[in-house]
């Protein structure tokens, strides 16, 4: 049985969804510490990207696993109540993500996706590993600038 009624659930979901949630701050702080400068929540680009690095023509989406249907992730579960509603909602989110990705890459943007579970769980105790991965992705367009420390 669902422990929340509908109102409570949607109230809670909207909190999860709100901007400047902790994982985003964690990611931004870590990127800043590595010397990356960015803009946040740029509204005039497809998908209102969370983090934009103009210098590297790179966009970072920090996706919640539930809302953006992270494939084979345990947080991308299907709720037991209002199942049809959630399936439709989340499927359309995933389709919109795909369309935005295509639009952005067509415009020449390098698009990087970071999943919330990576920050909350997978790399919780070694965020540097995640940021290494993101840094490599950011620098994709400029391979000569990748620092040698990745190959040590
Ligand atoms: Zn996930």
Summarize the structure.
The protein has 152 residues and is an alpha+beta fold. It is 44% helix and 11% strand. The protein has five helices and four strands; from the N terminus they run ααβββαβαα.
Structure in words:
By secondary structure, the chain is α+β, with helices and mostly antiparallel strands. It has one domain: VSR Endonuclease (Endonuclease, Chain A, 3-Layer(aba) Sandwich). It contains 5 helices and 4 strands; from the N terminus they run H-H-E-E-E-H-E-H-H. It has helices at residues 6-17, 22-33, 83-106, 116-122, 127-138; strands at residues 39-40, 51-53, 58-63, 110-115. Strands 1-2-3-4 form a 4-stranded mixed sheet, sandwiched between helices. The longest helix is centred in the middle third of the chain and has 24 residues, at 83-106. The chain is globular and about 45 Å long. The model is unreliable at 143-148 (pLDDT under 50). The structure holds zinc ion. Zinc ion binds at residues 65, 70, 73, 75, 115, 117.
Write the layout of secondary structure elements.
Layout: H1 6-17, H2 22-33, E1 39-40, E2 51-53, E3 58-63, H3 83-106, E4 110-115, H4 116-122, H5 127-138
Parallel strand pairs: 3-4
Antiparallel strand pairs: 1-2, 2-3
Features:
152 residues, alpha+beta, Endonuclease, Chain A, four-stranded mixed sheet, 5 helices, 44% helix, 11% strand, globular, binds zinc ion, Restrct_endonuc-II-like, DNA repair, nuclease
Oligomer kind: single chain
First-last Cα distance: 52 Å
The CATH architecture term is 3-Layer(aba) Sandwich
> Could you tell me the radius of gyration in angstroms?
17 Å
Protein name: Very short patch repair endonuclease
GO molecular function: endonuclease activity; hydrolase activity
EC number: 3.1.-.-
Function: May nick specific sequences that contain T:G mispairs resulting from m5C-deamination.
């Amino acid at each position: 049985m669902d422990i929340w009624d509908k109102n409570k659930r949607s109230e809670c979901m909207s909190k999860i969804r709100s901007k400047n949630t902790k994982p985003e701050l964690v990611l931004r702080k870590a990127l800043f510490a590595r010397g990356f400068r960015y803009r946040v929540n740029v509204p005039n680009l497809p998908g209102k990207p969370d983090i934009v690095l103009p210098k590297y023509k790179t966009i970072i989406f920090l996706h919640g696993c539930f809302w953006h249907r992270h494939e084979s992730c345990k947080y991308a579960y299907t709720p037991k109540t209002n199942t049809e509603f959630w399936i439709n909602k989340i499927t359309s989110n995933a389709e919109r993500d795909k369309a935005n990705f295509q639009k952005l890459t067509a415009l020449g943007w390098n698009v990087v996706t970071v999943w919330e579970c990576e920050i909350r769980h997978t790399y919780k105790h070694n965020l540097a590993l995640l940021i290494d991965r993101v840094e490599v992705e950011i620098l994709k367009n400029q391979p000569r600038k990748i620092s040698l420390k990745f190959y040590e």
